[in-house]
Amino acid sequence: MSFLNTTEVAFGLDISDRNLRMIQLEKKSKKIKVQLYSEVKLPPDCIISGEIKQPKVFLDSLNKMIKTKVGRGKLSDEVISVLPEEKTFFKIINMPLVSDEEIIDKIKEVLPQDIPVDFNDVYMDYQIMEKTDKGLVVLVGISPKNIIESYVDILAKANLIPTVLEIESAPISRLLLEQATNQTPQIIIDIGAQRTGLFLHDKTIKFTVSLPISGNNITKHIVDTLEMKWDEAEKAKIVCGLDKTKCHGALLEIFSDVINELNTRITKAINFYYYNFPDSKKIERIVLCGGGANFIDIAPVLESKLKIPVVVSNPWEIIENPNTSFFNDQRSQSFITALGLGLRGLRPDTFL
Questions:
Q1: Is the pLDDT of residue 137 over 50?
Q2: Is the pTM of this model over 0.85?
């Protein structure tokens, strides 16, 4: 779901509470390559829950990211960025068959039946997913005007043209599912440092759910339980993970409750899909991505509980990795959103 549109090549900019990451792609023959990339950390409290609290600090960090970019060629002045997931909402709604001119008015009539919304305070975008003689299936996205306008304004101050703003699940789906030959229903779980999102993809994104786990929560739990320093806990998380043969199986033991809760939430999401979508099909697999996906053995542990194949994503399946030293396994997972945004900029006809 995008709130703006473009027909030109643009670079992807991932904005989170802690980092800025950018990717500009290029296509040569049949290969997609990374042309330019960069990453900077944001100072604490610069962005809180998706809201830019310190515009000047943010702008300085953005300019630093652009200045320190790595690669070749000119950086586009057009940018595709991401809206904070916690500040966006989308829903699939069914409505009677109406003309193109009437559809927005009909959405405004139907949507408030499910959620309270003041259309004076939000921007709205929609995509027709299905059209039959009986009616329309429409994917509707909304986000507060003040959030979108703050992002557009700050990007413009950096002499950038914000041409597309997407919800975070869209670029992730684009990167991980675009080349999939088997378009069966799948769940993607993006385990970030601050939050984790689950979204169910069946031809399109059906719904998203927040999950009670994040990279920082995992680290803090290790710190508190094993009385480690933060850096030591981060290392243990990656080196030992949930492997029962490493670190005497300590992390597997202390995270049993967390894994059980995660299993319960995923199961509830699957059941919600089966019970609320008449055309639902069997979930064929679960894909883990994001920096927290590097938590060793989380995939097989979840798979054993859910009885559904669980895999860790490969961000470089359709794009060449330009620098395996920089884009190691952990950093590659953290760049998934930026890579997906870069794909949207490289091929503006792509829309998920």
A1: yes
A2: yes
User: 33-51: string of b/e by CB count within 10 Å (b at 16+)?
Assistant: ebbbbbbbebeeebbeebe
**Domains of the chain: residue spans and CATH:** 180-316 (3.30.420.40)
**Burial of residue 71, with CB atoms counted within 10 A of its CB: 0-12 exposed, 13-18 middle, 19 or more buried:** middle
Q: How far is CA 96 from the centre of its chain?
A: 31
Q: Are 34 and 23 in contact (CB under 8 A)?
A: yes
H/E run at residue 220? helix 215-226
Please write the tens of the pLDDT for every residue from 17-27: 889 999 999 98
pLDDT value for 25: 95
Instruction: Please enumerate in sequence order all residues whose Cβ is within 8 A of that of 171, keeping only pairs 6 or more positions apart, or say none.
Output: 12, 82, 336, 337, 338, 339, 340, 341, 343, 344
pLDDT at 181: 57
